[in-house]
Design a protein that fits this description.
The protein is an all-alpha fold. It has helices spanning 19-40, 54-79, 82-85, 98-110, 113-117, 121-133, 136-154, 159-173, 178-181, 184-206, 210-224, 236-255, and strands at residues 92-93, 266-267. The protein has one domain (19-267). It is built from twelve helices and two strands; from the N terminus they run H-H-H-E-H-H-H-H-H-H-H-H-H-E. The chain has a two-stranded antiparallel sheet. Helix 1 runs antiparallel to helix 2 and helix 4 runs antiparallel to helix 12 (236-255). The longest helix has 26 residues, at 54-79.
Length: 277
């Protein structure tokens, strides 16, 4: 990506939030999720499944994540950044649109439909709410591709650094899962950082936060569909999701310098205003 740094306009709407204070906001955000998880969560250590019942999804995930969405939305409201956060008008080359297209396609194919068919209707509904509608995708995208990207953009960082820093912070916050998952949370944090870069590119492809929210929600739903119920069950679809992640890492490692638009070879923003307009 380009290392050119654009100056930050001082007349952007809303309050300012420096990147060190953004890190504080992220710590509080993680604390809300982990704290409520400890307070209202149910013990699933006796099960092989991460979410054996609908109640476990509600109490271990939906309630904490729902509270984190309220917190993130409160921060955006206090900053006065809603219009800015929901739009990011920075175009990319046309080939980048294959990132969200491939992720959506593989996520839909990768859902373990056979396993979900054996689960209760309430559990499946809770999974869909968690993954797609008001769950992980909405909260994390609002915090990291919403607030985070704009914090680093306002600080005057180049797009390459905005992508890197917002993705690294996104990955690091998942280390908080070590309280419940142990050392594997470190590996998860590394994998999540790369996913954060993919979601950042989704944001730039359409210039709206809604696309990474959708892609993120479908991606997580596909993965979690293997982990619900009394007997979690891996599927070939889960392997496909992992393979695509590896392929995207390789492709973007090779082509990362060709993300920025070249004349006549870009995905144009939906509107002409620049970032934050």
């Amino acid at each position: 990506m380009s290392d050119k740094v654009e100056t930050t306009p001082r007349d952007r709407p809303g309050r300012d939030l420096s990147w060190p204070w953004f890190l504080v906001v992220v710590i509080v955000y993680a604390g809300v999720i982990q704290g409520l998880g400890q307070l209202v969560g149910v013990d699933t250590s006796g099960s092989d499944s991460q979410f054996p019942t609908a109640e476990s999804i509600v109490r271990n995930a939906l309630i904490p994540i729902g509270a984190s969405i309220v917190f993130a939305a409160g921060v955006v409201t206090w900053l006065g950044w809603w219009r800015e956060v929901l739009h990011y008008r920075v175009p990319v080359r046309r080939w980048v649109r294959w990132v969200p297209i491939s992720m959506i396609a593989v996520a839909l194919i990768g859902v373990n439909y056979a396993h979900l068919a054996d689960q209760s209707a309430s559990l499946v509904v809770c999974l869909l709410v968690l993954g797609v509608f008001v769950g992980v995708g909405v909260g994390e995208e609002l915090m990291f591709r919403g607030i985070g990207v704009h914090v680093f953009s306002r600080a005057g960082f180049s797009e390459g650094k905005i992508a890197l820093y917002s993705s690294v912070v996104f990955g690091l916050v998942h280390i908080s899962n070590a309280f419940g998952e142990g050392a594997q949370a470190l590996v998860q944090a590394l994998v999540v950082s790369t996913s954060g870069y993919f979601f950042y590119l989704c944001l730039r492809v359409r210039g709206t936060l809604l696309l990474p929210m959708l892609v993120h929600g479908l991606w997580d739903t596909s993965l979690i569909s293997n982990l619900v119920g009394d007997s979690p069950q891996a599927s070939l679809g889960m392997v496909l999701v992992i393979v695509l992640q590896v392929v995207l890492i390789v492709v973007l490692a090779v082509r990362r310098r060709s993300v920025e638009p070249a004349s006549g070879n870009l995905v144009p923003p939906a509107e002409t205003p620049a970032t934050g307009a």
